[in-house]
Structures are given as structure tokens and as C-alpha cells.
Write a structure and sequence with these properties.
By secondary structure, the chain is of the alpha/beta class. It has 11 helices and 19 strands.
């Protein structure tokens, strides 16, 4: 082909048009990327995507929330903080984020008692919460805390062998306490003998399985509290004190004597039928918020007082937790030695399904109804069992329902997803040999093969 001046000019024109079109495509792509933000999280645990619970609380924020972040630009986790808050801001335009360099704002650091780099203050109206842990769970809990309409105080009665909020043994409730405090609840343990006056801002009173008798005066204080429209969470056990009979009589309920046995618990690998599986929840906010089965250990069954009808009772009753149909209440004494010999006796035992939890409500003159929950087990909220199945979801939903924070009931607890890789000894040996022997031998064989092919040419 003969190259003339004309073909050279056409070739240069073609090159110029190509570069112009290339620049135009780059500009259009840049414009498209700034106007449209689409991200794809392909990690195994979706660690770069907000959980459904976080997205739900962001969608239900009642008003604007301010987040002040005290972090220096040179801080090693500055980018991680910005990325985390950006994920939250993508789901809500009610988050006002402000970054404050503590090196140039010492007065604000002292005023807000900032303890560390990266600390955040989440505030709405007069409520605020400090966040020191760089995690989605902590930030979501802070948003839930400031979203509450008012300060919510849960008063735990003590002095009769109840489970303690601060005890870290299997029997205690310290894990539940940490979750409640993380979501903005204020907790108070009170001995009615030492201090008979309940706080005016009490959202609900909690009785956590007393093992010693109440005095008649203490029971009278509690019944007076109920007469004034107070809310109550009663966690009962088979061996609880009988001194609260006046309370159950006032509520129109009674506990069925005997031991609840549930043979279906074997499906979860439990060899003790005294563990009751709950998968049948009432159509109630607490039941809807409980994500899966819950597990009650050594529970007691509850029923309305015999002969009491709804027409003569001011309360409305709903069986919240219903046992499996195969469960029953064993009337004979049950111990570890005779578990295998137990069987349903149609003449003496109470057949399932039976109620192991009941919610009771009554209309009042104020905006919200009076709310009472009686659960036939306190173990589910203890440190030993609160992490099992959906026990934590149920415990948090009960607290929110009793505090009349209905908008927060069906927001499940945000828990951290484990990222630790656990390998067996055999798997560790295989991986070790793979890196130390197999991969080097493959590389050596590949090199020898290439060398041999080149030599034969």
C-alpha cells in the first residue's frame, strides 16, 4: 500500500478522534461514578454491609442525630472510622457527622471527657451516648439508646436471693445487664426493706426468681405499684418462694405444680428433657421479635386461675410461650437419677402444649396500657443460657415491650460475627505440608519442565 500525504492526514485524524472519544468516555464514566454509588460486598460474612437491624434503626430514626468524632487525621484508624460512618450515612440522611481534631480542640475534649482517639458522641435532643468501640454493634446500640423517647429505668428487686445484675457467674444476669445498658436502659437494684419507695421514672419492675420469702409489707408495696398502673416482669422458677402467692392471685394466674418435661429437646442434642424448646409464640410484638427457637431450662407452667373468666377480670391474657405438643407437666418428683423412667401419665400429668410464658395487659387512662409479663423460667436470661438460641432476642424484646418502646421491639440485637478460623490438628498438618512441601515441589517441577522443553528445541 502506497502511503501518501492524504493517508497520513487521515491516519492522524483517526488518531485524534480516537483520543477525543477516549477522553469523552473517561469523563462520562467519572461523571457516572460520582452520580451513582453502587457497592457489592462479596466477603463471606458481609463485613462491609450493615446488618438488617442497623438498617432498620436508621430507617426509623425519629429525628436528626449528631455524631461528633474526636479523631486526628493522622490516626491509624481514621480511614476505618470514616468508612464505617459512611456506611451508616448511606442509609439515612438524618445523621450529621462532624470530625473534630482533639489536638486543636482541647476545650471540647475536656468538656466531653474524651478518653481516647476515635471516640464518638452520638446525641439527639438532650440524650447522648459515648462510643469508644469502633464497631457497627456499638454504634447501632448508641443510635437505639438516643432514639428512646425518655429515660427508661428497670428496677430489679433484690434482698430475697434473686438473680443479680452484677454477678458474673452462670447464675447471674450481668450479660443481660450489659446489653440493656448498651441500648440505653438505666438499671437499678433496689431492696424494698432498705428503700420502700420506687423511683418515679420506673419503666418496669423486675422480679428475678426470689428464693427467700418476701415480707407482707413488701408484697403490699408491689401490689400498690400495680394498682397505680406500673409494669412488671416476673421471672419465676419451680422452686421460687411461695410468699408471692398474693401477687399471682392479684394477677389472676397460678403456677401448675410439677416439672415440665419436653422430649423434643433431644433434637438439639440435649439429653435432659427438663429443657423446654419454644417455637410457638403468640402473635405478639415480643413473639414476632424472637427470631428463632428459645430454650427454657427447668421451667414452670402457668395458667389463668381456675374459675376466673375474662368477663370478671380486668386483665387481658395471652399465652406468649407455648411448649411443644409432646411436652407435659410431670406430677411425680423428678431427679437426674429417674429421668429415663419418666413418661406421661394421663391420669395425673398435664398434657402439652402448656404455657410457659404469659403477657397480661390492662387499659389505663394514660396513652399506653399497663403491661405485665410472667415467664416460667429465669434461666433463659442468665449468663449460662442467654447466648443460647434466641434467648437474648426474647429478653431484649420483653424489656422494650414493658418500657413501651414499641418501635424498638422488633429490632434484634446486633452481635459481632466471629471471624476466627478454627482448624483441627489434621487440617493444620495438611495446610502446613501444603505450604512447606507441595507448593515448592510444584514450582520446582514447573521450572524443570520449562527448562527441559527449552533444551529440546
Amino acid at each position: 500500500m502506497k502511503i501518501t500525504q492524504r493517508t497520513q492526514r487521515l491516519f492522524r485524524l483517526q488518531q485524534a478522534l480516537f483520543y477525543l472519544l477516549l477522553i469523552a468516555v473517561i469523563v462520562l464514566l467519572a461523571k457516572l461514578s460520582t452520580d451513582n454509588n453502587h457497592q457489592f460486598d462479596w466477603t463471606a460474612n458481609a463485613r462491609h454491609t450493615l446488618s438488617d437491624s442497623s438498617q432498620q434503626i436508621l430507617e426509623t430514626l425519629p429525628s436528626e442525630v449528631s455524631i461528633d468524632v474526636f479523631v486526628s487525621p493522622e490516626y491509624e484508624y481514621h480511614k476505618a472510622i470514616v468508612d464505617l460512618l459512611a456506611r451508616f450515612q448511606r442509609h439515612s440522611d438524618k445523621l450529621n457527622v462532624r470530625y473534630i481534631d482533639p489536638n486543636f480542640s482541647p476545650d471540647l475534649v475536656r468538656e466531653h471527657n474524651i478518653q481516647q482517639q476515635g471516640e464518638m458522641i452520638v446525641s439527639r435532643s438532650e440524650q447522648s451516648q459515648h462510643v469508644q468501640d469502633l464497631s457497627e454493634q456499638s454504634l447501632t446500640n448508641a443510635l437505639i439508646s438516643v432514639s428512646r423517647q425518655r429515660q427508661q429505668w428497670l428496677v430489679f428487686i433484690e434482698g430475697h436471693g434473686e438473680r443479680s445484675l452484677f454477678e458474673q457467674t452462670h447464675f447471674g444476669l450481668s450479660t443481660w445487664r450489659q446489653q440493656l445498658e448498651g441500648q440505653g436502659f438505666k438499671l437499678h437494684a433496689q431492696n424494698l426493706i432498705e428503700n420502700p419507695q420506687l423511683p418515679d421514672n420506673t419503666a418496669a419492675v423486675v422480679i428475678a426468681s426470689p428464693t427467700r420469702d418476701w415480707l407482707a409489707g413488701e408484697v403490699a408495696l408491689l401490689t400498690d405499684y400495680l394498682d397505680q398502673g406500673g409494669n412488671l416482669l416476673w421471672l419465676a422458677d419451680p422452686d421460687q418462694s411461695a410468699s408471692l402467692a398474693a401477687l399471682s392471685e392479684k394477677l389472676g394466674i397460678e403456677f401448675i405444680p410439677g416439672t415440665v418435661l419436653d422430649p423434643t429437646s433431644i433434637s438439639l442434642g440435649l439429653d435432659d428433657p427438663r429443657f423446654a424448646l419454644i417455637s410457638d409464640y403468640a402473635n405478639h410484638p415480643v413473639g414476632i421479635a424472637t427470631s428463632s427457637v428459645s430454650l427454657l431450662a427447668d421451667a414452670v407452667a402457668i395458667q389463668q386461675t381456675q374459675g376466673l373468666t375474662d368477663s370478671v377480670s380486668p386483665w387481658e391474657y395471652l399465652n406468649l410461650l407455648n411448649s411443644q405438643a409432646a411436652a407435659w407437666v410431670e406430677s411425680n418428683p423428678v431427679s437426674q437419677d429417674n429421668l429415663d423412667a419418666q413418661g406421661f401419665d394421663a391420669g395425673a400429668d398435664v398434657a402439652g402444649p402448656i404455657s410457659l410464658g404469659m403477657v397480661i395487659s390492662k387499659a389505663t387512662a394514660i396513652e399506653t396500657d399497663q403491661r405485665i409479663a410472667v415467664i416460667g423460667d429465669s434461666d433463659f436470661a442468665s449468663n449460662a443460657y442467654i447466648g443460647q438460641a434466641a434467648n437474648l432476642d426474647m429478653a431484649m424484646a420483653l424489656a422494650n415491650w414493658l418500657a413501651s418502646d414499641d418501635a424498638l421491639i422488633d429490632i434484634p440485637v446486633k452481635t459481632s460475627v466471629g471471624t476466627q478460623l478454627n482448624l483441627s490438628r489434621t487440617q493444620s498438618i495438611i495446610i502446613g505440608f501444603g505450604f512447606l512441601l507441595v507448593i515448592p515441589l510444584l514450582l520446582l517441577a514447573t521450572g524443570l519442565g520449562i527448562w527441559w522443553r527449552r533444551r529440546r528445541r
